[in-house]
Structure formats: C-alpha cells, structure tokens
UniProtKB/TrEMBL annotation:
The keyword Glycosyltransferase does not apply. PANTHER family: ENERGY-COUPLING FACTOR TRANSPORTER ATP-BINDING PROTEIN ECFA1, HEAVY METAL TRANSPORTER. SUPFAM superfamilies: P-loop containing nucleoside triphosphate hydrolases (SSF52540). Signal peptide: none annotated. Residues 8-238 form the ABC transporter domain. This is ABC transporter ATP-binding protein. InterPro entries: AAA+_ATPase, ABC_transporter-like_ATP-bd, ABC_transporter-like_CS, ABC_transpr_CbiO/EcfA_su, ECF_ABC_transporter_ATP-bd, P-loop_NTPase.
Amino acid sequence: MSTPAPSLRCTDLAFAYPDGHQALFGVDLTLAPGERVALLGPNGAGKTTLVLHLNGILTGGEGSVEVGGLPVAKENLREIRRRVGIVFQDPDDQLFMPTVAEDVAFGPANFGLRGAALRDRVRDALDAVGMAGFADRSPLHLSGGQRRRVALATVLACDPEILVLDEPSSNLDPVARRELAQVLLGLDRTMLMVTHDLPYALQLCPRSVVLDGGTVVADGATRELLADDDLLSRHRLELPYGFVLA
C-alpha cells in the first residue's frame, strides 16, 4: 500500500520582498497527515511570510511548496486555497455576513456547493466548533471566544486538508481559551499553529518548529524545546513567569 503524501512539504523555500528584504532562507518543513505542529519564533522571524506561501498569497520565491502532493502554483490556486484554511488572528477579518450561518456558508458556496449539501456542510462545521445553536445570530452579538470559533467554522466548512491558525489564543479569556483548545483537539485535521503562547503550543501541538531569521533553527518535541532555556533565550521566546513544565 502506498504511503500518503505529506499534508505539507516546503522544500528549500526562499523569498525576498521587492525592497530586497530577504525573509526566508531555504526553509524545509514537512507535516504528516493529522499532525499538529506549532510554529514559534520572535516577531520578524518570517512566520507570516511562510504562512502566506502555503496558499499562494505570496509566490515568486525559490524552492517549492506542496499541499497533499499538489504544488502551490498558479494553475492550482483554487484547489490549494480550499485545501489550506487560514484562521486569522482577528475574527473580524473573516466574519462579514449578517448571520453566522451565512458566514459559514460563504466559503463552500464560493467553491460551488449548493442546496442540501451546502446546508449539511454549514451544520457540520458549526457542530464541530460547538456553535450549532447560533446559526441565525449576528456575529456582532457574539463574545470574542464565540466569534473565534465561528471563524474556525468558516474555514472548516471548506473541508481543508490543513488548518493554519494565526495566534488562536490571543485576547481570549481563560474559559474561551480552554473551550477553543477542546475544539481544536477534537478535530481530525493537520494543523500548523503560529503562536507566541508557548503553554498553548505545549497543550495542543506535540511538535514545534522554531523559525528565526528566515530559517528553521529547531524542530522537535514541543516539551523538549520549551525545556531548553538557552534555545528560548537565543530566539526571544519566553514561558510565562511562574510556568513550570510538568
């Protein structure tokens, strides 16, 4: 039986912006199907530049990116953008329709889903994030944690192969943070979580990759990386005061 293609494979990915700033220097990164990986690193490390290559928002660099074996290339962008679902840090970047259900339906409808199949996809996505009872509500009337989960549902409704989560725990109170973690742990999806929240990375992602200066400087078990004080110090990463690795 053939081995399934990795959910994500970046090979020798390098990219410079038009002003000459080199943001990535030969990044290699592979995620297996179903793997949950945290992408850590200080501000300016190249994390956002890397993420924007995963669904073709940025192109023109050197090296290659494949999602489920499909190259990220101009002729494949429609399918790539279905396969790679990015959940932005601010839900306002994703929620713009009058009701929750309409927001969740927008993506799959744009990919051609209609009728009962679309209604089923919306229902299933809202069920997955614990928001089924809010379909007819306005996103404006939801709490921050609820809005974050609805934003996640808008991406899940497109049935992506990879979920890319940009600072998912930011600005959430402890209860909303825990509720979101429970939802994410219950999803059978490949995940790449970009975060400065090291305890959240430990809770959700068995593996972490540290990016700094546009290169991968560490890749391993999250617990082992967070126990390396020298590594954290060199790359401006810090556990909360008083936090003790169990």
